[in-house]
Amino acid sequence: MQFSISKVSADDGDDDDDENDAANSLGWAAVGLLVVSTIYIVFYQSFKITRKISNEGKLSSFKDFVAKVFRAVRKPLLYIHYFSGLAALGVLIAHGILLSRDSAASTIGWASAGIYIFYILTGLILWFKIITPKRTKKLWKVVLYVHRSLLLFAAILAIHIIHVALVGDD
Q: Per residue, what are the HEC states of the chain?
């Protein structure tokens, strides 16, 4: 007969560290996906700004070049914008669930997520044409204006920076 003595270790809370690491990784993945979804916005705004350039002079060829590039990459970038934004939402929700605690940092994080969810909902309304642009032109313009709002985007960034700063202190 043989006896074996096995070492039994007490739970030292490593699961909490693993959960926090996973939540942290998911949070940065969501930020990365948000950055990917903004590539379309950069191209669109570049195109929009260069349209104001006169058709005369040296800058007219630059204007034509930007328009040609934008028209060539518009649809693929738009789909990247859609799907990376939706993926960011899924990763963001998983991040929030893993990080949920009764702390100010998670409350501020959920506030940032709430604004982002609103942002995505306005985009989905536009994408699936839930509000038809022909029948309710004024409402369509309002939703489009809200979805393109730099103020909302700045609010998401500012609140998220506060969230990250508070989580870093924990």
A: CCCCCCCCCCCCCHHHHHHHHHHHHHHHHHHHHHHHHCHHHHHHHHHHHHCCCCCCCCHHHHHHHHHHHHHHHHHHHHHHHHHHHHHHHHHHHHHHHHHCCCCHHHHHHHHHHHHHHHHHHHHHHHHCCCCCCCCCHHHHHHHHHHHCCHHHHHHHHHHHHHHHHHHHHC
